[in-house]
Structure formats: structure tokens, C-alpha cells
Amino acid sequence: MLATSTAPILSTFSDDPDMRELVEMFVAEVPNKVNAFETYASARNWPKLRQLSHQLKGSAGGYGFDAISPLALRLEIAVTPSQPNVQEVDACIQQIVEVLRRLSV
Amino acid sequence: MLTFNVRKLPAGACVDRTYLKGQNMMSKLLHTSRAVLHVDDDPDMLQLVAKYLSKDFQVHSIVDPTKAIDHLARTGCRLVILDIQMGEHNGLDLLRTIKRLDGGILVVMLTGLVSLESVLVSMRDGAEACLFKPMNKPEELVCTMEQCAEKVARWHRSVNELLVRRASESCKAELQLALMEN
After folding, report:
1. Does B133 contact A57 at a Cβ distance shorter than 8 Å?
2. Phi, psi of B39 (to 5 degrees)
């Protein structure tokens, strides 16, 4: 299972010399992304979480990390209502953070 | 039969101001026909698109949508890639503003999954195409931008031909007048 394993998740562009540098930059930014998700989740800042999840959904696949987009979409949907289900949001963020931490080039 | 080559007119020959002004405009337009402005609030997307297009286009990336109009007005850039959902900013509003500024600027929407209405509104308000993230086929974006660039180039050629014809007619008239006076 994606969210319970600890194995590295490799980009589908790992062997693409043209894309490798860009993917490395994306992976290097992961700690900042994790920090942003956790900070906004603690603050219950729904608009920011919606923006972050929307961005991640759109960009991760482009860097060869297709597995993230469905999780990001789930979070985006969860934070869309004016009164989100906090448990659902927290569960989504936990999954996303776990997956983000496993990304590798 | 007299022939005219307005591209090789000697100094002091009859070149009207409209032609010169037009040539300056053409020079600017041709310079900007391969320039693309990409507006997206996600730096990761900006980098990705710049990577895909940089071989064939000069890409200028803007993360702050409020700076887009100023860039277009300043540079004369004719091609724009625009996200729809950018935090508190709506790309559809920006699309309309761009089209009001200059209806000839070609805008391609590159967005995440949005409502069908957003796509229809994009088309109605003048977007050339609507592509979706994640970009599974970057070549589709490249192909779309090539088609847009070709459309811009076609207009450039039309304007250029008009300027050449006008200059030619103007020269012809002046020479005929000079012949009559002599």
C-alpha cells in the first residue's frame, strides 16, 4: 500500500537525463512542502490547504510522481466545504506527508 | 515596366512614415512572436513548463498574476499560458483583462481539473485552448504553443505585406508625379 510502505517512491523520470535536474529540485523542496502542509493544518487554514493541495495535484504528476495526485485531490475535496471534516483532512494530510517524505529521484 | 523593391530603397527615397513606423512595429512583433508569458501561482508548474518550452520559446514565468498585464504592456508578448485557479486570483478574470488589453494576444489555459463551466467560459472569452494538469503529454503543450506562434506569425506576414504594398504604391505615385513634373 502506498501510504503504509516506507520504500522510496521514484520519479518516472529518474532515467531521463533531461528531466533529472528538475526532479531533483522538486524533491529538494519536499521538506518545505511538508512543513507548509503541517503548519496550515495546525492553523486550520482551509484556503491555504486548498491552494497547496490544488497545486500539488497539478504539478506532482508532471515531475513523474503520479501517485500523489489522487491523494492531493482527496485533500482538495476535503477542504473545499466551508466546514471541512477535520478528521478526514488530518487523515489526508498524514497520507500526503508520508508519501512526500518517500519521494526520491 | 517599372518595378519597385521597397526593401532596397536608396537613402532619401520615398519611404513614407507609416512604412517606417510599421517596420519598427514589425521588428518588435517578430522579436516577440516566440516569447511566452506563463502565469501560475505554483512555482513547480512554472519550472516544468519553462523546461518543456525553453527549446523553442523564450518563456517568462510569473508567479504573481497581478504583474501579468504590466509585463504584456511592456514587452508586447503575444502568447500567454494561464492557470485558472490561483489562490485568491481567478485566471478567467485575467483572461478577460488580457483580451481587453489586446484581443490579438493568444491565451492558452493550463489548469487543474475545474468545472465544465470554467472551460466553456475560457473558450467563450477567447482562450485558444484549454489543457489540463497534470501534464501527461507535454508535447501537447508544445504543439499547441507552436500552433499559436504560427497564428501570430501569419498575422505578422499579413501586416508586413500590407506595409510593403502601401510603400510600393506610395513610391509609384511619387515617381509618376515626378515624371509628370519633368
Report:
1. yes
2. -115, 120
Give the separation between CA B106 and CA B95, rounded to whole angstroms. Answer: 10
Phi, psi (degrees; rounded to nearest 5) at A46: -65, -45
Contact A61 B42 (CB under 8 A): no
Query: Of the candidates B47, B87, B112, which has its C-beta nearest A58's C-beta?
Result: B112
Please, which residues 51-70 of chain A have a Cβ atom closer than 8 Å to chain B? 51, 54-55, 57-63, 66, 69
pLDDT tens across the length of chain B (182 residues) = 433 333 443 344 444 455 555 555 555 555 567 999 999 999 999 999 999 999 999 999 999 999 999 999 999 999 999 999 998 899 999 999 999 999 999 999 999 877 889 999 999 999 999 999 998 788 999 999 999 999 999 988 998 899 999 888 888 888 888 888 87
Complex ipTM = 0.88
B contacts of A55 (beta carbons < 8 Å): 41-42, 44-45
- Closest partner residue to A22 among B51, B88, B136, by Cβ? B51
